[in-house]
Structures are given as structure tokens and as C-alpha cells.
Amino acid sequence: MIEHSPLSASPTSPLMEEGIVVATLAPVMPPSLREVARSAGGRRELSPKVTEGVGHQNNTQRRNPMEYTEKVMDHFKSPRNVGEIDGASGTGTVGNAKCGDIMKFDLKVENGIITDAKFKTFGCGAAVATSSMATEMIIGKTVQEALAVTNKAVMDALGGLPAVKVHCSCLAEEAIHRALWDYAQRNGIIIEGLKEPSDSDEV
To answer: Catalytic site residue 99?
Structure first.
């Protein structure tokens, strides 16, 4: 996707056409993400971890299965924490070979607290929204607390996602874990419960 600076999707963009977001931006992919995109076929394919509670929305009203909540639309149209961190404490990049979504998270950690988090994402509106929400959720938390942020927590914070977009929240969780792993490796520390990322694992 996208260098979201600023993101200016047209209000008339067909955001739910076959589940694919069509933005009015010219997509600009940084070289690092371009390399990941080219090699996506060789990376592990991330599959959804959480299916129960998908589309967590107002139970009194049935919605189009591809309809996004207001929070998802807000974080897509006005994403928070877009960009990169110079001298990041940890960086994590993940991709999904099937859908082509790619996320890169940068963390700034001071005294065990995440003081800043930024992302760059190439993908659909749900990928942008989950990246935006996930970074908001971990800023101000300890690295241990950030590790506990799950894909389900991200979905709940957004008011739910269509079933076919659950994988975007899984990518966001994995991006956090990879950035935390990178931080731990750089500083020679152990974050309890954090496992080494493996391209052979499924999320």
C-alpha cells in the first residue's frame, strides 16, 4: 500500500467491493516492503487465530458481512502513528502470501516502556485499520503488556471485522511480536512468553 501521508481516501471509494479497498492514493511501497512483497510466496502464510466473535457488532442489527464498523473506517481514513522511527528499538515486518498484505512496525522502548510505535502497511483497509489500532494499543504499555495484546483484542477495539478480514488482525499481532523479538535480541533480554518468530509457524 501505502505511504499514508496523509491518507486521503475518497468518501466515495468502494470500500466494500468484493472485500477489497480501492483507495484514491497512488500506492508507494518502500524498498524494504517491496522486497517482502516479492518474496511473499516463500514466507509463511498467516492464518486466522480467532474466528469466534468475528464481526462482533450490534447483535440487534444484521449487517452486510463485508461492512466495516465506524471505528474501522475511522482508522482507515485517518490512520494513527503512520511512518517510521529513526533509531527504532525494535522492528517487525510480516506478510500474508495469500492476500498480499504487508505490515512493518517500529517500536521505541525506554526503560521497558513503549513510548512510540509507528507502522507502514501495504494492503486493504482492514490491514491499515488494524495496524493503526494495534500501535495505539501498545503505546504507553510495558513490553510485557504489549506482548499480551492479541488479534482478538485488536478486533474488539475496532468493533469487529468481517470474517474474511480476520487475518489482518493476526498480522498486526505478529508484527508486534516480531518487533518485540527484535528489541529483545538487540538488548540481550528475555521477554517472558515471547517466542522466536519462525517462518514455518502458522499464526
So the answer is: yes
